[in-house]
Each structure stands twice: as structure tokens, then as C-alpha cells.
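Troubleshooting entry. Yesterday's outputs looked truncated, so today I'm pasting the complete records for two proteins to confirm everything comes through intact. If either block looks cut off, that's the bug. Protein one:
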Amino acid sequence: MSGGHEEHSGTPCSEVLDKLYTYIDGELEEPNCEQIRRHLDECGPCLEEHGLEEAVKKLVAKHCGCDPVPMDLRDKVLGRLSQARTEQLAREARAETPGTRA
């Protein structure tokens, strides 16, 4: 990842990833949607993350239909998202540290 990945359009990547599901669900207010869209337009790694998250959501919806999501699946997905956010924050911290390469 490039050193410029940590922030685009004045929005940190970690903030975009935190709002991603709300954005995908269409529950984010329009000014925030525009901010997220601008960031995703400029940030390839976040755009890849967005595509992955949207694909997983569609896959779960297709296979689960109207059935409630099993609680262990929800916990696993939330755990993986938390892990991804932690890794993203670590990458951003390394990118901000002078003299290190990401």
C-alpha cells in the first residue's frame, strides 16, 4: 500500500471502514455518503475493501434469504471486521512513522 493510503478527501481510511456497512445499507446521511464516495474514488485499497464487503453481504443475503442470520456467523463476521480495522490502523500508524516503509 502506498503511504498516501491513510487519508483521502480529508477522511481517514479507518473512518471510512467504520462507516462502510452503514453506507452499503443506504442508512448514511447524504453529506456523509458523498464524503465516503469521494474517499472510495481516490483510495484503491478502501475501494477493494468496499467491494469485498458488499460481495459478502450479497452472498449472505442470497443464501440466507429471509432466514435470520445464525448468531455464530454474525459474531465471526464482526470479529473479522474488527481484526481488519485493527490491521488497517496498524498500517496507518506504520505509514505515519518516519523512516519506515509500509
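Protein two, checking that the full record survives here as well:
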Amino acid sequence: MNRRALLLGVAGAAVAAAGFASTWSWRIVGDARAEGFEIVKSDEEWRKILSEAEYQVLRQEDTERPFTSDMLHEKRDGTFTCAGCDLPLFSSTTKYESGTGWPSFWEPLPDAVATRTDYKLFLARTEVHCRRCGGHLGHVFDDGPPPTGQRYCMNGIALDFVPDDKAA
């Protein structure tokens, strides 16, 4: 095999893999009604209520840079909510320092999140989204602490925080 054939083969494989990933990875935009979310807004409506960075993560499944979120350092007692719809997602009692650069939790609140498999990095990962508005939150991995052994690795920009003294 000559170098040209090898390069063409690699390029063809990359195009095919990208097509596979885009076909099988879930995109929130234009898909919310099909998924049956309680809160459905047009792209224009989401852009009006979210900052550009929030929009990119929650609606376009982007990932914020590690170690950049204020939520990483949030230590008060309270509840982490969806930045898109204010649904309570995680209790501060389940937050822990994972060392990954993103806020991590070992368990969501009951009926707060939903998951699905994505293949964006050409391997199966479990994507986590808000069960009410479909906003992309991050991913869950099986390398967390007891009692669940799970690490919900969330984009801090997708979360808001309500301290216990402000709740109710």
C-alpha cells in the first residue's frame, strides 16, 4: 500500500466515523418535542433567556473548559438546579471533589435527570440531561465514590445554585 492510498483510507474512515457520530449522537436542538420534554422552547426563545455560554452547553451539548466554573468551588449547603428551567437536580450533600475540573456528584435528586448514550468521541458514553427541559448537563461515569460508585460530571455553567437559607 502506498502513502496516498493510506492517507485516503484514513480520511475516508474519519468522514465515515464523523457521519456515524453525528447520526447517533443526540442533538437537543429541534428534538425536544420528539423527546417529550415538559418545557419546549424555540431556538430563538432559548437564546433570549440563556447567556451564549449557557446556550452552547445546554442546547448545543458543548463542554465548558475544566476548572473554569464557579460551581466547582461552591461549598455551601443547598441545591444545584438546571440553569435552563430551574429544576432541582443535585443536593450539595452529594457533591464531591473528583479532581476532574467539573462539579461532580455521586447521585442526582429523584426524577431530576435522564440519560442516553452518545457516541461523540467515537465511544459510548452516558450523557446526562435535565428531564424537564432536555438541557445537556454532562456525563455520568462508573468511577465515583460510594455509596453509588457513580460520578455525575456536570458542566457548572449548566447549573445554578440555591443555598438552603434561600430555599422555600
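Both blocks look complete. Sanity check on protein two: Strands lie at 78-82, 88-91, 95-96, 104-105, 113-118, 125-130, 136-141, 151-154, 159-163.
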